[in-house]
Amino acid sequence: MKVTPEHFAELVERPGVNPASHVGRYHWIAVESEDALPRAEVRELIRESCELIRAKLPKKFRQD
Q: What pLDDT score was predicted for residue 52?
């Protein structure tokens, strides 16, 4: 999941959450186990990730 730089620094300190291979430098994380994060937090991170990605799309590809 793509996260903000602030969330990235906080999340990768937790067990079971690592920078994603090849794209970690762009603030993507990999969750290694189901119990690394609470489900509600995972849902929020997915929503945030979608918003971050959508914000970078050219206007003609966005569905605002």
A: 96
